[in-house]
């Protein structure tokens, strides 16, 4: 324990001894109780000592109580009984108010006040019970009168003294210095005056309004001191046999101990008036301080939001709040709009447009009510600036209500999104223009495809006829050809075959695009199709220096689909590998069964495909830049047809390629299990 606290406890002990003797010796000579014994000081000492030093303090309280009561002429057994009740009271109140020594008693709000009154009342009940039992066992006085006198006296002491040891809510005095001096003057003058005459007991209650005045206008400590001063004067005069309370028992034929009961009741009345008033004022001042701090905080936030217009109105729409953001965005100053209606901020056309959008009547109030709905938060609203320009704001309108649910006003927060809205509208317009352009391109593409299909159909018949006549010329049906003539016929025949193949590709692609690829399903062995594709392309590498390998599994791989179409895929892939691989290179065709189907890999060591072009590889008419640079012939249709055929059969195609190193196409097809 610190030295300062030890000195304070010693001082409290001295006060307890002095006032204890005063209380006992001031009681009536033929009384059975002790007057208002300073049990509140004893409880305060226990609170100040804490849990560790509680027992020594209780022993001191017991000793002081026994000595003072016994010395005042009460029998020893009575003094011990009263003292044990006092110690029990001190311990119980200490335990309740400090939560068993874990915290300092608090007297700051209504909950604390109820707990304080309850704890002190229970403590006084313990003292009253001890007095009742002591009186009954010793025959000292009337047990019920003793219990009433001790209980009321101890409650008065606790109520008037314990608040000094509680944690109060500090606040400055509301009253100026002159008013406070007047209060003290009246208390120190009026109190002795009302306690001097022997008649008119009710006149003593004139002082209570003065205590209420002080509780409402002074600090809590000053209000408590004023109450203590009044009670000190009352106790002094009454003990001295002066004042209206001193002679009440004689005037009304009551026991002499009734004087202490009346005096204690008066003290309890004073405490029950002063304590709630001073707590209420302290709480209101604290709430006002917090509200002011919160108001200042909100005001600072509102004022600092220069990019957001914050506008407040009363319940009928008159402007009461106009922050710097509103001044900056709308051009009006605070003084120019204060008290005016918010209709000035919106044009009739803007209200009409918003009403149509919200589906409400063309009326400002109807639009405002709809905008205040939670689902309308963040909607765009047009505002008129001071210059007459109409700007688009993203606005949230909030309805303000009081504790009874009545609307007290509205607050709107908005920010200027005019540029964003204009950009969005421009983007929408651009997207619409692009959509129309894409639609036109699609129409043009369809016309082109129809034209290509029509031309291809028209060309196929004459070219077929040309090829037929060329075969007849080569066979000598029209006479023998010399070497030059035969070479010319061969060249024309080769180019005709290429043209016929291109026409077939165009017709196949046209079918894929127009009505989808139609396949003829039948069962066959995939190995045979791969070998057939190999054999069809074989003449293309016979006269070249290419190493071509074919690897097929030994077991058949049954497949259900269009044999001719799948064979066309193999011809296209193997033909491309041969075409794009220079002499001295290698071409490999490998087929193997996988868990859920068959995978065919066609690889080469040819020119490869740039990585940036591989995503376009299966687009129709696409030819890589490398193929074009090296003037390698081709239509760019083979891979798109191959991909369409494979996907029609439930398979997939992927490519791996490195420029100048080669390419590998992987075809996966679902085999029949």
From TrEMBL:
UniProt KW keywords: Coiled coil, Kinase, Membrane, Phosphoprotein, Transferase, Transmembrane, Transmembrane helix, Two-component regulatory system
Domain PAC: 377-429
Subcellular location(s) per record: Cell membrane
Boundaries of every PAS domain copy: 294-340
Coiled-coil portions: 414-441
Domain Histidine kinase stretches: 454-673
Organism: Nocardioides luti
SUPFAM superfamilies, per the entry: ATPase domain of HSP90 chaperone/DNA topoisomerase II/histidine kinase, Homodimeric domain of signal transducing histidine kinase, PYP-like sensor domain (PAS domain)
GO CC, one annotated term: plasma membrane
Enzyme class at the top of the EC tree: transferase
Name this polypeptide is given: histidine kinase
Enzyme Commission code: 2.7.13.3
Gene3D superfamilies named among the record's database cross-references: 1.10.287.130, Histidine kinase-like ATPase, C-terminal domain (3.30.565.10), PAS domain (3.30.450.20)
Phylogenetic classification of the source organism: Bacteria, Bacillati, Actinomycetota, Actinomycetes, Propionibacteriales
One of the record's GO molecular function terms: calcium ion binding
Cofactor(s) for this UniProt protein: a divalent metal cation
Transmembrane segments: 7-27, 54-72, 78-94, 115-138, 144-165, 200-216, 223-246, 258-279
Catalytic activity: ATP + protein L-histidine = ADP + protein N-phospho-L-histidine
């Amino acid at each position: 324990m610190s030295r300062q606290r030890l000195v304070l406890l010693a001082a409290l002990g001295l006060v307890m001894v002095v006032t204890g003797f005063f209380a006992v010796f001031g009681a009536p000579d033929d009384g059975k109780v002790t007057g208002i014994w300073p049990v509140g000081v004893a409880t305060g000492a226990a609170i100040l000592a804490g849990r560790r030093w509680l027992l020594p303090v209780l022993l001191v309280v017991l000793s002081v109580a026994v000595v003072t009561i016994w010395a005042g002429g009460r029998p020893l057994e009575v003094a011990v009984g009263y003292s044990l009740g006092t110690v029990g009271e001190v311990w119980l109140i200490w335990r309740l108010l400090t939560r068993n020594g874990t915290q300092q008693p608090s007297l700051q709000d209504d909950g604390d006040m109820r707990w304080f009154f309850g704890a002190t009342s229970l403590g006084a009940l313990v003292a009253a019970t001890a007095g009742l039992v002591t009186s009954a066992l010793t025959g000292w006085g009337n047990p019920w009168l003793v219990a009433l006198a001790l209980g009321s006296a101890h409650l008065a002491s606790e109520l008037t003294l314990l608040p000094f040891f509680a944690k109060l809510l500090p606040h400055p005095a509301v009253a100026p210095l002159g008013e406070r001096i007047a209060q003290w003057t009246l208390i120190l003058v009026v109190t002795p005056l009302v306690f001097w005459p022997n008649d008119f007991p009710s006149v003593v209650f004139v002082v209570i309004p003065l205590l209420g005045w002080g509780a409402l206008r002074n600090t809590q400590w000053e209000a408590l001191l004023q109450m203590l001063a009044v009670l000190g004067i009352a106790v002094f005069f009454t003990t001295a046999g002066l004042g209206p309370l001193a002679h009440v028992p004689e005037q009304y034929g009551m026991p002499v101990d009734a004087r202490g009961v009346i005096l204690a009741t008066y003290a309890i009345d004073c405490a029950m008036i002063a304590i709630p008033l001073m707590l209420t004022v302290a709480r209101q001042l604290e709430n006002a301080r917090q509200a002011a701090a919160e108001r200042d905080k909100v005001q600072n936030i509102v004022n600092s939001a220069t990019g957001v217009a914050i506008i407040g109105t009363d319940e009928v729409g008159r402007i009461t709040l106009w922050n710097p953001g509103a001044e900056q965005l709308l051009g009006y100053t605070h003084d120019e709009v204060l008290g005016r209606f918010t209709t000035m901020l919106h044009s009739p056309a803007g209200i009409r447009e918003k009403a149509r959008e919200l589906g409400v009547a063309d009326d400002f109030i109807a639009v405002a009510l709809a905008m205040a709905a939670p689902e309308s938060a963040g909607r765009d609203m047009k505002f008129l600036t001071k210059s007459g320009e109409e700007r688009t704001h993203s606005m949230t309108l909030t309805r303000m209500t009081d504790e009874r649910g009545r609307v007290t006003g509205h607050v709107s927060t908005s920010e200027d999104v005019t540029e964003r809205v204009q950009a969005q509208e421009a983007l929408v317009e651009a997207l619409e223009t692009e959509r129309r352009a894409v639609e036109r391109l699609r129409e043009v593409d369809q016309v082109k495809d129809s034209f290509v299909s029509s031309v291809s159909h028209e060309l196929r018949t004459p070219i077929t006829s040309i090829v037929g006549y060329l075969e007849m010329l080569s066979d000598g049906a029209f006479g023998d050809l010399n070497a030059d003539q035969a070479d010319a016929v061969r060249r024309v025949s080769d180019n005709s075959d290429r043209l016929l193949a291109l026409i077939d590709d165009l017709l196949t692609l046209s079918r894929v695009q127009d009505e989808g690829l139609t396949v003829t399903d039948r069962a066959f062995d995939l190995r045979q199709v791969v070998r057939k594709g190999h054999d069809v392309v074989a003449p293309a590498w016979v006269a070249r220096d290419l190493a071509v390998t074919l690897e097929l599994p030994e077991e058949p791989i049954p497949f259900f689909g269009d044999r001719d179409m799948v064979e066309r895929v193999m011809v296209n892939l193997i033909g491309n590998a041969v075409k794009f691989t220079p002499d001295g290179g290698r071409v490999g065709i490998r087929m193997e069964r996988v868990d859920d189907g068959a995978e065919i890999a066609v690889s080469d060591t040819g020119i490869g495909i740039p990585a940036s072009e591989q995503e376009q590889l299966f687009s129709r008419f696409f030819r890589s830049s490398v193929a074009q640079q090296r003037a390698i012939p081709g239509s760019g249709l083979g891979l798109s047809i191959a991909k369409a055929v494979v996907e029609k059969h439930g398979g997939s195609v992927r490519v791996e390629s490195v420029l100048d190193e080669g390419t590998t196409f992987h075809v996966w097809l679902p085999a029949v299990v």
